[in-house]
Here is the input.
Amino acid sequence: MECVNRKNLSKVLSFALLVCMLMTCITAVTFAEITDGTYYDIAIDGDLKVGESKDVVVTVTTVTGGEAQVVKSDRALTVSSSDPSVVEVVSGKLVGKKEGVATITVYGFNPNWNGEERTMMVVVSKGAIQTKNFDTETEKGYKETIGEFTNIPYSYLEYPRHGLTGLGLSLDPLKSAIHRYEYSKDHGDVISVEESITSFMFKIWECGSHNSTLGGCHPENGKDASNELSYLFLQVLRNIHDSHPRMVVRIAEDTPVELTDLIIKIWSEGMCDPTVVSDTTVIPGLLKLGVTLKDARNYATLGCQEIEIPGKCNTGCEDGSFNLAKVLEIAMLGGKSPIDPSYQLGPVTKTFEECETFDDLFDGYIRQLKYFTEIHLYLCRKSQECKVANHSKLLKGLFTDGCLEKGIPHDAGGPIYGYGVIETAGLAATADSMIAIKKFIYDEKTLTKKQLITMLKANFDGFERERQMLLNGAPKFGNDNAEVDELATRILDLYWTEISKYETGRGGVYTGACSLLTGGISFGATMGAMADGRFAHEPLGNTMGPRPGADTHGLTAMLNSVAKLPMKKGVGGTTLNVILTTKMLATTELRRSVSNVIRSFLKNGGCMAQITTANKEDLIDAKCHPERHSDLTVRVGGYSIQFVQMDAISQDEIISRYV
Here is the structure.
């Protein structure tokens, strides 16, 4: 806690408590000397008992010129229950049906209401009122960002913001809660800053927010927005020392070194959070999508690492996933199906055996890539139309600017920003295979095309010497090799440029991303052997980085390779798994060196980095003796998990990342 300026702790405490109060029991108070605005209290008088009925009361207080007018809301509310056996609605009242906790969603829906009015969504639990969000599409909780919450204590005074988007809070309720906290504090109710922050973080997690964002810049002037809360939240995360709550820190060129030092220190103690993401890369990329500068500066993360504009765009990496390596497999067959060679799956191009030059092969790859991109994005648009027809994201629309105003749902173009996101798989495997073909077939003529085709069909059975040559004799992406890095950059730039030519059902274009989680395993399971020495059905890798184990020249070389990629064309959220073992971070000098390398990566083209700090020998031992390693945490991709909770295939994929 030594990094925190204590003179601002009262402000910090105010903020922490005000949000906790907004999430728990709300009671009426006297408004005095509060900024003009509209404030809401939603209450139920006591617990619901079996057979008892109660009114849900909404009190609206309007403050004008320091004078408050209080009225009961006459607007109709919709009341429903996640458990119909607990409560039912009779003549507009709640009627208890059994003892225990009554969890009831109460929200207003009127397209003419403003942003504050449409945040009136709460949960009634034994008579207490909580703000809560629910995912209308899954049963896993509401997958939404809460925005850059560390800016709130200062931003509500300095400039307007969308507020805690994922929690449905806007600025006037925040001011109201500050008044409530001050009232409480004046009457002797004071708790520690650390306890306040901890309560807040767990309340965020409880309310279904999978991720939260620290740092970044002020939307108005672009200056560093980190403050005392940035350090406080990180210190509490450090003390919790678990895979959740999840946290991301935005890093810019003027981000204090002390903040990144604290992040590295947390990693050195065995944690995988927080993720770090680059303002230098993301903000210009969002501007290319038509996002305003002010909104681009206000981006945050949701889900695992998806980037969005809080309350103004669609949900993350959901439009589709595309396997670049599968296109190469089809291109080498001249567009025919790998499963049934008699079936023409793509356009007719030269087969690998017919390609006289490497350029012939690459030209065929480009034709197949464009063809399958068009089909894929057509299907993505049809998927969006299905979501519209089935009222997908109906509840999220209440919290997204544009949907109610236009009367249009998310996937039909309701949000202010309608861009889409396509996840991209198989880049490293594609580049590594192409460079091996170029080197051994066309440049050095060490192998013939027929020999390579025979080896791939046999899955290298009987050709281990040749496989080792392909595996270790050709350059691999992730080692700062100019030739293969240039090829990977060319491939990715072609694909992300191509998807940007297509319009989504929401009215925007597509941007790239990579949030495959364990998708690299499933994509690899459908593929045959490849010219990079990869056996059939092996994982492809699940991030924008090198294939697992292929980066043999160290951390800096790997980050240099990735930083060359056109990341500004893929700002949907692009993961990069980075191995930084606790041994690599054991001293102050090592940590400072890593801090410099990470900051340089994020400044010079990198998008984000997700860290695994476990040592390889501990992972191997944990497979045999899981009881010894219950707290051993690893990064799958966008999320972290205890290693012993993973299945054996996923554990092996994690271990394979270590050289």
The mean pLDDT is 75. Residues 92 and 619 are 57 Å apart (CA to CA).
